[in-house]
Amino acid sequence: MTSTDHQAEIAADKAARKRAKRMKRFDNPWLNPKLIWGAGLLLAIVALGLIGRMLWNLELVYTGSTPLKLPPLGFENLRKQPGVLDYPLGTDGSGRDILALIIMGAPNSLFVGLLASLIGMSTGIVLGFTAGFVGGRTDDVIRVLSDVMITIPPLLILVVFQSAFGDVSLTMMALLIAGFVWQSPTRLIRAQVLSMKQSGYVQMAQLSGASTTDIMFKEMLPNLIPYLFGSFIASVTTAIVTAVGLEVLGLGPQRIPTLGRTIYEAINAGALIQNLWWWWGIPTLLLATMFIGLLLINLGLDEVSNPRLRKA
Amino acid sequence: MGRIPRKYLINRLITLALTVLIAASMIWVIPRLSPVDPAEIALGRMASGAGAVANAEEILAQLRAQMGIDQPLIVQYFKYLKGALVFDFGLSTATFPTPVSALIAQALPWTLGLMILSLVITFVIGNLLGALMVWDHSPKLAKVAIPAAMVFTSIPPILSGLLLMWIFAAKLRWFPLTGAYGLTVDPGWNWAFVQSVLHHGFLPAMAIVIVTFGFWALGMRGLMITVQGEDYVKLAEAKGLKPRYILYRYMIRNAILPQITAFALKIGLLIAGQVLVERIFAYNGMGKLLYDAILDQDFPVIQGVSYVIILITALSVFIVDLIYPFIDPRIRHEGG
């Protein structure tokens, strides 16, 4: 090998390393556009709830606080009434301001989703680790239980519950839904734990005398984080879909405004035939935004945990 | 391939039985924890019809005996389980004394029909579009338009249903707003009725299709990417087979199999979503039956409908689990 060859090689090597460094800086997988857009959409909804609470008159969510069936600003309803600035998104059939309704309602849906999946996830983490680590009978019980529960659609059990008990609070609904979103994280974590148990670094930790909890939480949990996030977002989606489903059946919380309940009231009042599109349309649009945001986050997280998808 | 290992079969059967048992028990236990007394609801319904009821206590006791709720709980529970096995859920309280099973028998064909129709459509469209996203020879438009359409995947079908109802039924009046068939046609096997059913069923089916096809398309895309690099596809290309032939016979055929398992996991959510679609379209299926029962506090019907839907879900999962190795010989049943 001549020295010029050698120098060229070194130069090429340097350039490659420089490129790699730059790629590393810009190619942070957590900064992919899907993730950012998804998070942005959800944050916008949270911001609507928070800023709206400070700026808008929330007394307008009470029945009869506004004129009936006014359209949003810039539109006319069937009675040729124009929209007014006082109620920029229009009003519903019992005299409530739609803007105030969504300011109050949108965060409620997210709250149910987050609380339910936080509880579900925590249960899933504990059960999944236990099943994967302890094995034997315990594993059998947990595995069969999660297999069984995963086929039961939460909506139908909760319909029975809520029609028997009547009004439920938002927190109660979240707790009930949490009972149905622990299965997939449990299965996921159990499978991952079983495969990780065989890996070198876990066996190394075991040999060096680390305690089981240390191995679980210091060695294995960090490697599970992208999966956990993905699973978390999936259960938030399931939880919100279930909550909205119950509300559209008229079974959600009765005394606080929710997006699903607004849609329920709109359908019952015949808003579709009366062309009161803003009444059901605006909550629908907001829910759709929420779900699209969650989907984008999930796709973005897929790219984080599965680098092969990034190049495509 | 071929025979199902007995251990696996037993395992799946136990899971199926446990699923149904646990679901049935939950449905039974939950209303009993509530302070609401179904006999009093029934009495209240009588009272509101007649103005006043004489001998209220006597009638209450009679109603309780009729509903079987004067017996010890454990007896009630086993009676209920025995009934559930043969789809006997007692009598509807709102349309007393119609048996719940008769109401369900009326509603079930509608739900199953709508479900199978929309499932077949989404499965075909979704997988085809997913394959086109990857295929080298597909039109440019497909590669841009399909990912955009994918955004709908995340939206529950009630929302898409509302949108379709508004555009195509309320605004354009191309399709009827609600119901499963027109009021003017006689139910039966005549052309007018079939036409009316199809006309009414189109929007609810579409509401489900547009939000579910993306799920299959996404899965198919991933599988196609894997299949694309396989040697047999390269060989087929080298042999000079037509691209279209390769797409259907070599690529899709191999990629589609894992999609069927995905189907098993998704079916519960699909059915729950459809129940809601039926509710907003006032379609004569289980969803409407359930919704009306909720309004009337008709617990036997609520229980019956929930039970039957859970049973359908569990059975579908069971069947898919069992037949899967027959469809895909590469997969063997895990020793279980």
Automatic annotation (TrEMBL), chain A:
<keyword id="KW-0653">Protein transport</keyword>
<feature type="transmembrane region" description="Helical">
    <location>
        <begin position="155"/>
        <end position="182"/>
    </location>
</feature>
<dbReference type="GO" id="GO:0005886">
    <property type="term" value="C:plasma membrane"/>
</dbReference>
<keyword id="KW-1133">Transmembrane helix</keyword>
<comment type="similarity">
    <text>Belongs to the binding-protein-dependent transport system permease family.</text>
</comment>
<keyword id="KW-0472">Membrane</keyword>
<feature type="transmembrane region" description="Helical">
    <location>
        <begin position="110"/>
        <end position="135"/>
    </location>
</feature>
<dbReference type="GO" id="GO:0015031">
    <property type="term" value="P:protein transport"/>
</dbReference>
<feature type="transmembrane region" description="Helical">
    <location>
        <begin position="224"/>
        <end position="246"/>
    </location>
</feature>
<dbReference type="Pfam" id="PF00528">
    <property type="entry name" value="BPD_transp_1"/>
</dbReference>
<protein>
    <submittedName>
        <fullName>Peptide ABC transporter permease</fullName>
    </submittedName>
</protein>
<keyword id="KW-1003">Cell membrane</keyword>
<feature type="domain" description="ABC transmembrane type-1">
    <location>
        <begin position="106"/>
        <end position="298"/>
    </location>
</feature>
<keyword id="KW-0812">Transmembrane</keyword>
<keyword id="KW-0571">Peptide transport</keyword>
<dbReference type="InterPro" id="IPR050366">
    <property type="entry name" value="BP-dependent_transpt_permease"/>
</dbReference>
<keyword id="KW-0813">Transport</keyword>
<feature type="transmembrane region" description="Helical">
    <location>
        <begin position="277"/>
        <end position="301"/>
    </location>
</feature>
<dbReference type="GO" id="GO:0071916">
    <property type="term" value="F:dipeptide transmembrane transporter activity"/>
</dbReference>
<dbReference type="InterPro" id="IPR035906">
    <property type="entry name" value="MetI-like_sf"/>
</dbReference>
<dbReference type="InterPro" id="IPR000515">
    <property type="entry name" value="MetI-like"/>
</dbReference>
<feature type="transmembrane region" description="Helical">
    <location>
        <begin position="35"/>
        <end position="56"/>
    </location>
</feature>
Automatic annotation (TrEMBL), chain B:
<feature type="transmembrane region" description="Helical">
    <location>
        <begin position="305"/>
        <end position="327"/>
    </location>
</feature>
<keyword id="KW-0813">Transport</keyword>
<keyword id="KW-0812">Transmembrane</keyword>
<dbReference type="InterPro" id="IPR045621">
    <property type="entry name" value="BPD_transp_1_N"/>
</dbReference>
<feature type="domain" description="ABC transmembrane type-1">
    <location>
        <begin position="108"/>
        <end position="324"/>
    </location>
</feature>
<dbReference type="Pfam" id="PF00528">
    <property type="entry name" value="BPD_transp_1"/>
</dbReference>
<dbReference type="GO" id="GO:0005886">
    <property type="term" value="C:plasma membrane"/>
</dbReference>
<comment type="similarity">
    <text>Belongs to the binding-protein-dependent transport system permease family.</text>
</comment>
<protein>
    <submittedName>
        <fullName>ABC transporter permease</fullName>
    </submittedName>
</protein>
<dbReference type="InterPro" id="IPR000515">
    <property type="entry name" value="MetI-like"/>
</dbReference>
<dbReference type="GO" id="GO:0055085">
    <property type="term" value="P:transmembrane transport"/>
</dbReference>
<feature type="transmembrane region" description="Helical">
    <location>
        <begin position="107"/>
        <end position="132"/>
    </location>
</feature>
<keyword id="KW-1003">Cell membrane</keyword>
<keyword id="KW-1133">Transmembrane helix</keyword>
<keyword id="KW-0472">Membrane</keyword>
<dbReference type="Pfam" id="PF19300">
    <property type="entry name" value="BPD_transp_1_N"/>
</dbReference>
<feature type="transmembrane region" description="Helical">
    <location>
        <begin position="12"/>
        <end position="30"/>
    </location>
</feature>
<feature type="transmembrane region" description="Helical">
    <location>
        <begin position="144"/>
        <end position="169"/>
    </location>
</feature>
<dbReference type="InterPro" id="IPR035906">
    <property type="entry name" value="MetI-like_sf"/>
</dbReference>
<feature type="transmembrane region" description="Helical">
    <location>
        <begin position="256"/>
        <end position="277"/>
    </location>
</feature>
<feature type="transmembrane region" description="Helical">
    <location>
        <begin position="197"/>
        <end position="218"/>
    </location>
</feature>
